[in-house]
Amino acid sequence: MTDLTSLTLAEARDRLKSRAVSSLEISKAHLEAIERAKMLNAFVAMTADKALEMAEASDVRLARGEGGPLEGLPIGVKDLYATRGVHTQACSHILEDFKPPYESTVTANLWRDGAVMLGKLNMDEFAMGSSNETSCYGPVASPWLPPNWSRDRARAALSSGKRGLLTPGGSSGGSASAVAARLCLAATASDTGGSIRQPAAFTGIVGIKPTYGRCSRYGMVAFASSLDQAGPLARTVRDAAIMLRSMAGPDAKDSTCSPAPVPDYEAAVGRSVKGMKIGVPKEYRLEGMNSEIEALWTRGAEWLRAAGASVVEVSLPHTPYALPAYYIVAPAEASSNLARYDGVRYGLREAGADVVELYEKTRARGFGAEVRRRLMIGTYVLSAGYYDAYYVRAQKIRTLIKRDFERAFADGVDAILTPATPSAAFGIGEKGSENPVEMYLNDVFTVTVNMAGLPGLVAPAGLSSEGLPLGLQLIGRPFDEETLFALGETIEQSGGRTALPEPWWE
Amino acid sequence: MATERRSTNLIKGATGDWEVIVGLEVHAQVTSRSKLFSGASTAFGGEPNAHVSLVDAAMPGMLPVINSECVAQAVRTGLGLKARINLRSTFDRKNYFYPDLPQGYQISQYKSPIVGEGEIHVDLTPDHSIRVGIERLHLEQDAGKSLHDQSPTMSFVDLNRSGVGLMEIVSKPDMRSAEEAKAYVGKLRTILRYIGSSDGDMEKGNLRADVNVSVRRPGDALGTRCEIKNVNSIRFIGQAIEVEARRQIAVIEDGGKIDQETRLFDPARGETRSMRSKEEAHDYRYFPDPDLLPLELDEVFVASLAAGLPELPDAKRARFMADYGLSAYDASILVAERETADFFESALRHGHGKRDPKAVANWLMGDVAAQANAQGVSPADAGLSPAALASVVDLIGEGVISGKIAKDLLARLFAEDRGAEPRALVEARGLRQVTDAGAIDSAVDAVIAANPDKAEQARTKPGMLGWFVGQVMKSTGGKANPQAVSEALKKRLGV
Q1: CA-to-CA distance for B104 and A338, rounded, in angstroms?
Q2: Is-contact A146 A427, C-beta < 8 A?
Q3: What is the pLDDT of residue B127?
Q4: Considering only CB atoms, which chain A residues are within 8 Å of B98?
Q5: Strands of the sheet with A277-281, listed across from one edge
Q6: Is residue B432 over pLDDT 50?
């Protein structure tokens, strides 16, 4: 059975098409793997009956020689996406028992193309977090063993609070862990400040946050509307390309969604990168930077040069202001987006003597500490007297960051290469409990991309000296995901595909 | 047409004269089939929560999409207010918690409205009008409705109105009395109804106003204003301004000062009450709505809407005066409702189209309007066709019936003979007036013979003549031509 779950999405697709295997077999294999991996806490809801039903229907279509690009392929869905009649909670208490009577556009596109839904994946509450520790369902364990940990020690930790085990990153921690642990062929994720790319780097897989507007946000529980973007997590660049092609596309139900047609991203995988000009931004070379990350970055540039690309230094001067500005814009939007969770119409309601008390009790109990913190920050920065000093200035910085990138691209750079994260994965309970900013610093290399609305892809680039995966980030021109897939594949090939950990949790 | 402002608006206080300054924020429901950002129906009535989409209920992950018809209506209205149309406008969120506001914010246009400065000419009397400046017009969502009287322990929420498109039309503080403010709202409502961008139906809450009132000594700088929220009839707007101005004057004359605050008007008690002070004012935390792109219009779109605009009341009034020789007063009354003006022109032009405009106008504004009033409808909807009115006017003009008979004829056309063709009805009911001299003479003789002493008095007191005309009309069943009767009487009585 390990066989079927170890296939890449592309391999599984080809086997299904040649009828070497059925969707029912592949889907069952994954459902069993999920059962055996319960302790990782990657899935918060399994939809086994639905999966089997969808798989059978796919097999019928495949038998007729029909079916979409993802026909019969079992995937996982981040709990952020509304799935009709199925658990959709953004891993928050406040959406307790919520089952939407509607489907998000991204998941509808996946089902249209034949994908099979295995269940809903754990995440940081409302996608606010970088370690999946803010989920109301508790943390997710990464399938990667902490350095020098024995299998037994890790198994013991799994059943006693997971402390010390590695986080898969966040907010798409459940998605990353499930894909890396081979519980699904690929998964949907979402990225507001790095929530696809950081977990990809931490778990040795591939993630892409496409250009803002490439995927519809309809039916995706909103965190920060101007930054949120859907994207896939997968085990190879090719698999990510296949997933994104199905997820993306125009949608009249989202005014910010691009009407541009979706190219065949898979065709870009394997395309030559010869003659491309790659920018390496000097401002990303931080003081006191982890030397392994720095070395990895240099190595990545060498790989691309070896493949025929030229590498030049570029300047993105406003980079240092991106993180603080992000932590104003994102909470500001969140404070307004999350106002609808008031206990009046759906989800959790805590009774109160009057409506104000109902609000206070519902929201105090319904939201976790990190969400409450960001809602307070967001409310503060939008308040009269502070708006100009915080929100308006943050938006100005955002414009300058965007301009930095535009200038670099105008100078002929095809893509920009940066580290994905300041370090390899850290342990559960290790960061942010004393000072939340410690956790926010995880996003230092990724938030600029959201602030500028650009596509960013993270591909695994090797292992740290302690044997943990490290990733590199490629940033592209707006709607030029194809270049990122071509370059990403070069990194993936040059680094040698990372061998994912054996299932010690089973 | 605008004349110098008259100083008769001043209010007499205990210590001298005061001037009242009024500015209005009118909220008019946009006429459109669906809501501003969702596909749900805007139909009035219906079971509570029957017209609610996932977007209106603010379900997780739902997004607003602008309704282009509402945008077109706002632009049409802006053009009707001779206002600047902003080719780029933006939507902002106004954040506050309330159960009838599912999103926790209202989408409005705070920074960059779709329509900028414009103006309205408001007629106070036929020959006196004032100009009221328009500050801006913007689009925003209506909220739902909280129902507090359905249960002793709970409040209910009806979201049917949630997300319905409103135009907020903000005037400059250009009005100086309750009368001016009432006339302004009346004129604005007329313009909206002409354009078809709002039905202005105040009973359904489709037109409401926030009224800003301040007072000052004539010539002084503006005083501190109070805002009276959500006044829902023209009459109440007038009353609210009167009582608020008097309240403010009393406060100042007693040595107090006016606090900037939001107040409510209580029509039952005829007073305004404080709702919240400036310190208690909500901090709405406005910021641009990231779910919506800036609204960008092109010149061609605006030009096509301008080309499709109907003739507006000011232009129509001027044309009625110039083309039909109507007085300013008559023209103003006729154009107040577009349907009435259309009815007038259609009656005037019916068939050969050669009839006296003044006569058509008089009958329309007189008997027809009175009948309509009694039914509680507009003259155009009272059940008489323009062709029938044309026919009645023609019958009078041809001398077939008298004005007296015409009144009876119209009464019949509104009642037992509804829908009948007037000319045929005159024949069928024998309503043709008697102009035959012989018949009139014998009727006159009969009346004189029956009242010899009154006839004697009439020879010296010509004022009695009217009584005799009345008696002859009565004896002829109203069909005699009153003019001919009068002539015959004068001859017989020798006056």
Answers
A1: 8
A2: yes
A3: 78
A4: 355
A5: A43-46, A116-121, A74-78, A186-191, A229-234, A206-209, A456-463, A469-476, A415-419, A277-281, A310-314
A6: yes
Mean pLDDT of A124-150: 97
Contact A195, A187 (CB under 8 A): no
B58 and A359 within 8 Å at the Cβ level: the answer is no
Residue A388's pLDDT band (cuts 50, 70, 90): very high
Q: Please provide the size of chain A in residues.
A: 506
pLDDT of residue A233 exceeding 80, the answer is: yes
Give the pLDDT confidence of A271-328 residue by residue, as tens digits.
999 999 999 999 999 888 999 999 999 999 999 999 999 999 999 999 999 999 999 9
Q: Is A383's CB within 8 Å of B283's CB?
A: yes
Mean pLDDT, residues B328-347: 95
Selection from A485, A477, A478 nearest residue A459 by Cα: A485
Domain that holds residue A64: 2-268+427-495
| Interface contact flag, A336 B95, Cβ < 8 Å | yes
Cα atoms found within 13 Å of the Cα of residue A360, Cβ hemisphere only = 6
pLDDT single digits (tens) A16-25: 999 999 999 9
Q: Is B159 exposed, middle or buried (0-12, 13-18, 19+ CB in 10 A)?
A: buried
| 8 Å CB contact between A418 and A281 | yes
Give pLDDT, residue B5: 52
Looking at the predicted structure, is the pLDDT value of residue B307 above 70? yes
B411, burial (CB in 10 Å: exposed 0-12, middle 13-18, buried 19+): middle
Q: Per the structure block, which two tokens stand in for A484?
A: 């990122």
Name the DSSP letter for residue B368: I
Q: What is the pLDDT of residues A32-51, one digit of tens each?
A: 999 999 999 999 999 999 99
Q: What is the CATH number of the domain that holds B465?
A: 1.10.10.410
Do B423 and B447 lie in a common domain?
Answer: no
Kindly list the catalytic residues of A.
Answer: 78, 171, 195
User: What is the complex's ipTM, to 2 decimals?
Assistant: 0.96
For residue range A81-129, what is the model confidence (pLDDT) as tens digits? 999 999 999 999 999 999 999 999 999 999 999 999 999 999 999 999 9
Average pLDDT of the segment spanning B368-383: 90
Please name the amino acid found at residue A154.
A
Three-state DSSP at B480 gives strand
Axis-axis angle for helices B313-324, B328-335 (nearest 10): 140
Is B209 or A434 the better-scoring residue by pLDDT?
Answer: B209
Place of tokens 């909206």: B192
Give the whole-angstrom CA distance, residue B100 versus residue B240: 26
Instruction: Give the end of a domain, one of B403, B428, B453.
Output: B428
Residue B1 in domain: no
Mean pLDDT of A327-352: 97
In a domain, B394, yes or no: yes
B293 contacts on A by Cβ (under 8 Å)? 255-256
- Alpha-carbon torsion, ordered B380, B386, B392, B393, to 10 deg: 100
Q: Do the domain assignments include residue B469? A: yes
| Residues B397 and B449 occupy one common structural domain | no
Establish if A30 belongs to a structural domain.
Answer: yes
For residue A219, give the chain B residue with the closest CA: B61
Please indicate, yes or no, if residue B170 is contained in any of the structural domains.
Answer: yes
What is the count of structural domains for chain B? 3
Mean pLDDT on B180-192: 97
| Last residue within a domain, chosen from B284, B306, B328 | B306
Residue of B nearest to A94 (CA): B60
CATH number at residue A254: 3.90.1300.10
Report CB contact under 8 Å: B102, A344.
yes
Helix (H, G, I), strand (E, B) or coil at B198: coil
β-strands B118-125, B128-141 pairing: antiparallel
Residues of chain B in contact with residue A82, where contact means CB-CB under 8 angstroms, are 59-61
pTM (2 d.p.): 0.91
Number of domains comprising chain A: 1
